[in-house]
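Is zinc ion placement plausible here? Inputs below.
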Amino acid sequence: MTQQIGSTVLGYPRIGPDRELKRAVERYWAGTLGEDGLRAAAAELRRSTWTGLRDAGLGSVSSNTFSYYDHVLDMARTVGAVPARFAELGRSDIDTLFAMARGTDGVAPLELTKFFDTNYHYLVPELGPDTALRLADRKPVDEYREARAAGVETRPVLLGPVSFLLMAKGHGVDPLDLLDRLVEVYAELLGELAAAGASWVQLDEPAFVADRSGRELAALGTAYRALGAVAARPKILVAAYYGDLGPALQVLAESPVEAISLDLVAGASDLSAAAALPALREKTVLAGVVDGRNVWRTDLDVALGTAATLLGTAGRVEIATSCSLLHVPYDVEGEPALGVVKDRLAFAAQKVEEVVLLGRALHEGRDAVASEFAAAKALRAVDRADERDEHVRARLDTLGADHYRRGSADARTAAQRSHLALGPVPTTTIGSFPQTAQIRKDRAAHRSGTLDDAAYESRMRAEIERVIRLQEEIGLDVLVHGEPERNDMVQYFAENLAGFAITQNGWVQSYGTRCVRPPVLYADVSRPAPITVGWSSYAQSLTSKPVKAMLTGPVTILAWSFVRADQPLGETARQVGLALRDEVRDLEAAGLRVIQVDEPALRELLPLRAAAQPAYLEWSVDAFRLVTGGVADSTQVHTHLCYSEFEVVVPAIDALDADVTTVEAARSSMAELEQLGTGVTRGIGPGVYDVHSPQVPSTAEIERLLSAAGTWVTPDRLWANPDCGLKTRGEREVTAALRNLVAAARAVRP
Ligand code: GLN
Ligand code: ZN
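Reply from A.M.:
I modeled the complex. Tokens:
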């Protein structure tokens, strides 16, 4: 019996078409839903996903893509990587899982970090000398059986052993040293899957689309030779995605695995590399031609052509998504309000249809699906005149080097000294103040039309005035308006710029039960009218202290949106940059003397391969400089970067040429920031209040952090500020923390 894998998707959303899982899990946490209820909701979601994928006509349906919180966490539990502090709690399976994800009773959770260059976040497995790897949990087998009982034959999906180790954190051990033992655990799991009836298993090895050492590549070969040698096992599909496999492709081609999937959207170079690997003639290659990370309909003819070029290379070719569909919303049919843009979009359900169609075209011939191809082409070809804005393009053509350049640092320092009159170690915040239930209610009422513009405006103004008075009373030096009008730092700008569409139901899991609704950037970007100027200038009118205006930068806006695929990202960044430049100039003209452009995503969009990083950093830095390059020397430009892992980006941060850079630092040791102090030549505000914690830092603690920072940055360059916006914190704790911050800054001033 030769079972071919057939065309497939590498994974599917799991939060539920109406976020059923999010709601059920949150109710379970709140104690309003019992474990049985939660499990029933999860089972129903799994069942409807499997049967839906089968009925859509996929050749192979994935399973074990469901997760209560995170699939990397699930894999850690499956292989017994549960740190003692959680096992010792003696809780039920599901509560142990949630404790690992969220922490409990003074027990710190696993660290949460970004999943490669996506907006998904995973929990970092912890491996130590006491970690006893073993097949501790049988979720993949149980879910395979469950699907089978529901009448659906599936292909369990597992995070591969080598990526698992490369994504884990070793405490006193080098994770890769545990490979042999871990492979034994996987071998046992494969044996159980085969015994349960599984004919295929998918092992994901996304870590190999980043640069890897010879040792790491060798580990990949070792692992798959060993798994290939397991006597009774399902056939193995190795999936790597988010880029090209580079040298790992040859390692896999020469291993005994039966199938490899290639991300031909992000890693087109694998196509030519594959042609030079005779070993692939023995294997099935899945052509990942349907983009799993973006929301556009596929050009089916181009995709078919790409897949067809593999026909002479591989023993068999099947169609796949480039990666899991975890990163896209469920269904465009949930977006009736999107108008013409909707026709151009494909969410998960539509991408499944595309994979099925392409698979049929590949095996039965294009004629068999000619009418479906024609219909899809017609949708893609709908009038797209709205995508081009000739005025924007003409303006961009006129930009020269001057648009990206400000005066010398010395000239700016002098001009700002007299314009702002700030002493050493000035105090400020990052922009948002606690968002009360009332503020959220007012915003929602305004959106739904039950609160008219005038009433909304007066409520927001009242809030701004309250926040200004509070800051004055606390004694901060550079004030903010508090951002009460903003739902989200990207969506707010997307709603106010031309070129973006906002979905109603386009939710995507970010981590656990947290979902985001990325805007869709579909056309040339421009700014129809000033966005923040009214709020910021109102705030400035209330006080003689400088008020800092806040904008979200172009890289962050792109990173947290679905972006156009028809032009380079750098070109789109320039359009966003130009629109924000207009805003910055209007803010300056309205009397704002300090302007902050937030770029928390600068680091996270960094390409996975070193070779691609310089070009990225060049266009991203340019976009920032385009935003800020039009102001006078006397206007102080701030940027806020959120994270604290700089290594590779320090030169780029310096190249942003901001007058002041604020970063997250409260949770790292201040000493780690030394490289920032030497690499960035202007003002630096290492965050000294951890806004992710409800703790109020004492004056002594903040003083200690500021003094530690003082070893690598002089007082004339040092700022005192929290490490991020305050919007998720409570009013009382924020007020107390800021008072301590002001007192500490005063204490360290020379
Ligand atoms: N200005 C934003 C705020 O204060 C910055 C948020 C962020 O860096 N993530 O909320
Ligand atoms: Zn931040």
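Short version: The first helix runs from residue 20 to 30.
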